[in-house]
Automatic annotation (TrEMBL):
GO molecular function: choline kinase activity; ethanolamine kinase activity
Lineage of producing organism: Eukaryota, Fungi, Dikarya, Ascomycota, Pezizomycotina
Protein name, as recorded: Choline/ethanolamine kinase
InterPro entries tied to this protein: Kinase-like_dom_sf (IPR011009)
Gene3D superfamilies: 3.90.1200.10, Phosphorylase Kinase, domain 1
Annotated family: Belongs to the choline/ethanolamine kinase family.
Cellular component annotations (GO), alphabetically ordered: cytoplasm
GO annotation terms (biological process): phosphatidylethanolamine biosynthetic process
Transmembrane segments: none
One Pfam entry name: Choline_kinase
Length: 379
């Protein structure tokens, strides 16, 4: 991976890269075929995400010509900061550390796209990353009902959780501890949420009054008491960040894991439990609650058995499926807390009063309390 600093490029007022800027940035990494490409000849597909703007860029190639550089690349223009999730700013990786994690994940276990380069603007420190293009699609809820897909996701999580990046900053405090101390302190978010729920006629009183910081501390105490393992978690494990290969080779892992912007120290059960929870949601659809059944107990046990198997292969430990599942059940509660926290902030900032958002809020809270009561944790 090339790291290029102090390069001139302009984002513009619309947070967008022009074809000529894209050509120049990619050409700085690939100085032959890309550097000489005509910007007007590029095929560019732009997608604006929550935090970043993404481009799939393809250059024309003469038929029969042998290429020494990739024909297509994935270009990511990073947003400026974490916006309304700034409470985590000091605890998530820098763009360089994130790129290094991606590089390690790609080289060691082929878990994600290989980053070709990271470029930093000379004028405002904005960053752009250029990656390989993956031939894959987003994970669907029905996919995890197939044992081989479920096993590959579990093994991929385990492999990613074992990666250590040289020079990575480690905080003694977990991501959840930060959320408990600072994340739920924005009273205006909950007041706006309450006002929106009243206006929409959606009952949310119990959720709004719930003392999540105390519950998070109780969950951490229980995880610590059982010796739950901490590692670098992805946190943002929504199904859009798990990709299924379109044309896997025989014997290949079918899965890629993408978007490590929120990677930070936490209990590994957070990612596993978060994955179980995310099956029920489709955050960028009109109806945010997915039309599917939840993970069954047998499916969870199978997932945790495959996770433990891969973890033990890499780490030389003797973890059991039961041990991993116990951590995941508590991690499930932490992951729901994280999503509730983030959704409250989004509604506060964006002023959303859509009923679908509020119903998804209630669904998360119902799932939280159902599992909380199963765990026989004190109120």
């Amino acid at each position: 991976m090339k790291v290029i600093e102090n390069i001139e490029f302009d984002v513009g007022s619309e947070e967008s890269l022009s074809p000529s800027t894209i050509r120049d940035l990619v050409g700085a990494i690939f100085p032959y075929e890309w550097a000489s490409a005509d910007p007007a000849s590029l095929t560019i597909t732009r997608t604006a995400g929550y935090a970043n703007t993404n481009y799939i860029v393809k250059r024309p190639v003469d038929e029969g010509k042998r290429c020494v550089e990739p024909v297509s690349v994935f270009v990511k223009l990073h947003g400026s900061g974490l916006g309304n999730l700034a409470v985590f700013e000091k605890h998530v990786p820098s763009k360089l550390d994130e790129a290094r994690l991606c590089e390690s994940a790609a080289e060691l276990h082929r878990l994600c796209a290989r980053p070709y380069g990271l470029l930093t603007s000379k004028t405002n420190s904005r960053t752009v990353r250029v990656d390989e293009v993956l031939d894959a699609r987003c994970l669907l809820p029905v996919d995890v009902e197939h044992a081989h897909i479920r096993a590959d996701i579990a093994a991929s999580f385990a492999a990613l959780h074992t990666i250590e990046v040289a020079g990575w900053k480690n905080s003694d405090e977990t991501f959840c501890g930060i959320m408990a101390r600072y994340g739920f302190n924005n009273d205006s978010s909950w007041r706006r949420l309450e006002a929106a729920s009243i206006e929409a006629g959606v009952h949310m009183t119990n959720l709004i009054k719930c003392d999540f910081p105390t519950k998070i501390r109780q969950l951490e105490a229980k995880l610590d008491s059982m010796g739950a393992k901490r590692t670098h978690c992805i946190h943002d494990v929504q199904f859009m960040n798990v990709l299924v290969k379109n044309h896997p080779q025989p014997g290949d892992n079918h899965i890629y894991l993408i978007d490590y912007e929120f990677a930070a120290r936490n209990y590994r059960g957070f990612d596993i439990g978060g994955h179980f929870m995310q099956k029920n949601f489709q955050w960028y659809a009109e109806t945010q609650i997915a039309d599917c059944r939840s993970y069954t107990r047998d499916e969870k046990q199978h997932f945790c058995a495959e996770y433990a198997k891969r973890w033990n292969e890499i780490m030389g430990d003797n973890d059991t499926a039961e041990q991993v599942l116990a951590e995941a059940e508590l991690g499930y509660l932490l992951a729901i807390s994280f999503d509730l926290h983030n959704m409250a902030l989004c509604i506060d900032i964006e002023g959303s009063k859509e009923v679908s958002n509020l119903l998804a809020f209630n669904k998360l809270y119902e799932m939280f309390m159902e599992e909380w009561n199963k765990q026989e944790l004190e109120d």
